[in-house]
Model the fold of this input.
Amino acid sequence: MARICILGTGAWGTALAAALIRQGHDALMWGRNPATCDEISRQHSNKAYLGSARLPEGLVATTDMALALDRAEIVLFVVPAQSTGDVARQAAAHLPDRALVIACAKGIDNRSGQTQSEVIAGQLPGHAVGVLSGPSFAADVVGGLPTALTLAMPDKDAAQAMAQSLSGDAIRLYASDDIVGVQIGGSLKNVMAIAVGICRGGGMGASAEAALITRGYAELVRLGVAMGARAETLMGLSGLGDLVLTCSSELSRNFSYGIAVGSGRDVSGLKLAEGVYTVSIANDLAARHQISCPVMHTAGLVLAGRMSAEEARVALMSRPIKPEIPTTSRDMP
Done:
C-alpha cells in the first residue's frame, strides 16, 4: 500500500482521502484551515463540504506542509484550480525526490492558459506529473458508491501500474497517456454545465438542454483536438462521461450555478464553480486556435453580464444553418 499525501481539504480531496484510507493506503491530508483539519482528524467529518458524511477514523489532516509530505510516495493536488500554482510552490521545499504527483482539480489556469499538470510541472521540475479525472461526485465517493475515473501519465505503463495500485471496491481507474485530453475534457465540461444550467434556469425545456449538451460536446472535442488531445479520449470517462454527469444533477456546482444565473437569482453566496474561472481563458484559447465555440462564447457573455439568458437563446437559435457534421472549413459552426 502506498503512502499518499492529499493537498486540499475540500469536498473532492476529503472524499478521495476517505476512499484511499478505506482501501488500506496510508493517507494524510493537508489544508490551510486549522478548524477544518481539526474537524477531519477529531470529529471524522467535514460538514462544510460533505454534510453529515462520516469519515474514516484513521484519516488525519494537518496544516503542516512538511509533515503532510514527509515520505509521501504519491501526492494528489486537490486544491481549487486557480490555487494550484501557489500550493505547488509551497510544496517544492518539502516534496520527496521520488514522489509522483497527480493533478486532480478540473480547470485551466486563467492567467497563463496552462493545464493543471503544466502549472505543477513548472513549479516542481523533475517530478512525474499525472492527472486523475472523470465523472465523479464527492458525495458518491465518500459514501463508497462505485465510481470510474481516468488516470493519465506520460508513460502508459506507469499509469497502468498506478491504476491497479489505487483501484478498489468503490473506485475503478482506467489508464491513459493522453494527459492533455483528460484535462481538457474535465475543464471544458464545467463551462458546458454552466451553459446547460442557464438553459434549465431559464425554463427552456429538456429538448434545448439536450441540444446544448450535444453541441457543447462538439465544441469541447474541436478545441481539445486543436490543443493536442485525442478525440477518443474525449469520448471516454474524462470527456463525455464527465459532461453527462455534470449536466444532469444539481449536485454539480457548475450546473447549479448556471441554474441560478438562468433564473436570475443572486449567485454571490454560492460555492466555487470552476467553470466561472475557466470560461474566459477557454474562449481566449478557442480564439487563439481559431476554433468556433458559440455555446462557450455565449455562456461567457451571460456570466459577464453582457447578455441575458433569453438573449443567449435568441443568439444561438439565430445562427446560420450549417451541416451538423462539417466536411469543409466553410461548413464549420
